[in-house]
């Protein structure tokens, strides 16, 4: 008898307030077979699913959210890693490991063969890492520090939101390259965490007073690279501290995303771009998966991981049936590290 | 008997008002010989001298000007082209053609062997062109359009101050590469001139009303490259019209150079840099003379010039003794085209 399939479905949308276990149900479903594949489809065995804060938006059922909503009665979906058991697509073959943001919360499922990224087969590393240190936020850090800013030993890099998913990896990639690393974060705890990751200096941008002076104090020789996650006033202060030929890896401007025409911060120090020969380089990580940078990133960070030279906390929950509880725990901040659900058993994890 | 040397000297500084011929004197001086060279010096025969508006500042005698003043009783100096007749420097040899901004207004002179750029020997082109179409403003256009923005056929380029020394060459380099060229200039006459150089569309930024709308009208498919000479509000309007993966060659922000902390324009559209993956690339042309870009520029533009495929007006005055009158004519706008003084005779011009 073939093992039954398990699916996590939404019972009802939760517009506001805390969701509960009763808002989800675990269903036994039939096991999909390769015979039921239509053209250009893949049969996926789910290995790991990511549990992320943005999923609260999906639970709400709001149609105007920037993420697609979960639908009552349907299976949840999100970031995950799986292995292909069968394929009718020329782009994928049995055994390929894939990651993407439309993996179903189901042990096995059939999907159209689009929107997934093949990840290089690696040895000795749990595929869970592809949702963490080898995942999108880390690759974002790599693209900014390495591909765009072309960080060199001896340079000084300033990183805002340095304790975040991107920032903490940017710190470690820069330190590994011999840079002097300055981190800015929004609480004293986060500042301590940033220092524990190897930053040479760090400060609390909410309590430091004048930002330009705070950066100057932390980086008295000036800033060669600014990894911007926040934009606005902090970007302006960074511009005032840039050295000649400085590069700004422009990853995000979260301080401005809710701004209106009236409240948007207006940048005054852009005039420094010419005399200082600065480059401001906007990027979106998804443009880089098809470039050699991605394989270089996986190779470098996998090696650092195996050698214990990079820190990243994973919090593993075992069993898809425990996924909803993991999500509730996340909303209450009970996790310590990146939360993932291990769906396949150890035996099934073997790639 | 060896021919005597001629030198143009300043009689008195002219703080304000129109200078007259009486403010200059033409002196016969002794001909310098290679025997009088000290270590690391060059003996230069002047071929052409440039007559430029910025020289008014040098005449004033003000100590706080951004350019070094001319001194009463001393020889004038400025941009020029010369040929080396003798050298005690390992960097220069007899026959080298040099350009720089410290050439003396003298037929022959001795200088320390620093601050000059060697220019490639060219065939069939007057060295006067090195003060014009092969000079610094043109190379600035090349660096922005080619080296930094990497202009490609089919793209749309927007150029501000398009009728200026840099802009008019940027237009022609972009057209030669098959781009759609949009120029902005500050008078209707200048707009006509911009169109006559081949721009597909041009508008008067002083009378067009809303800048963002004016750019959108001129470039309905958006802007791939913005060659910025002005900064400020125009830059903001350009940012609002940039296509994905657009590049801004940041050459200058003349609209902001006299701004104070209070009057400086504050940029609101910088937030587009991330979602549109824009690059803002500040540069100063002097960083590029030592790169292969310079030889590539000379080769490309010399060829265009010989083939009649690039326009650039030169206004030649013959004889160093007529230099002061040329300067006065410039201040009255009597020149039509780039004003240069031909110092050496045709026979002496042979390189």
Automatic annotation (TrEMBL), chains A, B:
MF term (GO), any: oxidoreductase activity, acting on the CH-CH group of donors, NAD or NADP as acceptor
Record keyword Transferase present: no
Protein name per Swiss-Prot or TrEMBL: Enoyl reductase (ER) domain-containing protein
Can you name the source organism? Coemansia spiralis
Determine the domain of life of the protein's source.
Eukaryota
> Where in this chain does the record put each Enoyl reductase (ER) domain?
19-341
Entry keyword set: Oxidoreductase
- InterPro entries, per database record: ADH-like_C, ADH_N_2, ER, GroES-like_sf, MDR_fam, NAD(P)-bd_dom_sf
């Amino acid at each position: 008898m073939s093992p039954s399939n398990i699916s996590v479905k939404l019972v009802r949308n939760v517009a506001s307030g805390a969701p509960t276990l009763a808002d989800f149900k675990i269903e036994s479903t039939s096991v999909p077979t390769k015979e039921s594949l239509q053209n250009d489809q893949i049969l996926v065995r789910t290995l790991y699913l990511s549990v992320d804060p943005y999923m609260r938006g999906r639970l709400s059922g709001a149609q105007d959210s920037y993420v697609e909503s979960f639908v009552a009665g349907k299976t949840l979906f999100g970031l995950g890693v799986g292995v292909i058991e069968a394929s009718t697509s020329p782009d994928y073959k049995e055994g390929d490991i894939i990651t993407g943001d439309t993996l179903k919360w189901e042990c096995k499922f059939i999907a159209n063969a689009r929107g997934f990224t093949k990840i290089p087969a690696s040895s000795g590393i749990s595929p869970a890492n592809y949702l963490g240190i080898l995942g999108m936020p880390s690759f974002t850090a790599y693209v900014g520090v390495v591909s765009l800013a072309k960080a060199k030993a001896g340079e000084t890099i300033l990183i805002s939101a340095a304790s975040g998913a991107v920032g903490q990896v940017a710190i470690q990639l820069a330190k590994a390259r011999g840079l002097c690393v300055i981190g800015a974060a929004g609480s004293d705890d986060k500042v301590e965490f940033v220092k524990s990751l190897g930053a040479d200096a760090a400060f609390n941008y909410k309590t430091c007073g004048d930002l330009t002076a705070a950066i100057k104090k932390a980086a008295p020789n000036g800033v060669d690279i600014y990894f911007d996650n926040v934009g606005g006033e902090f970007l302006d202060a960074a511009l005032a501290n840039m050295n000649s030929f400085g590069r700004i890896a422009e990853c995000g401007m979260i301080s401005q995303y809710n701004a209106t025409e009236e409240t948007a911060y207006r940048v005054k120090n852009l005039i420094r771009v010419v005399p200082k020969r600065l480059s401001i380089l906007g990027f979106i990580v998804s443009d880089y998966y098809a470039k050699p940078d991605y394989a270089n990133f996986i190779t470098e960070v996998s090696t650092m991981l195996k050698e214990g030279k990079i820190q990243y906390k994973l919090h593993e929950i075992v069993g898809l049936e425990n996924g909803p509880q993991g999500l509730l725990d996340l909303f209450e901040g009970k996790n310590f590290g990146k939360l993932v659900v291990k769906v396949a058993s150890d035996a099934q994890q073997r790639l």
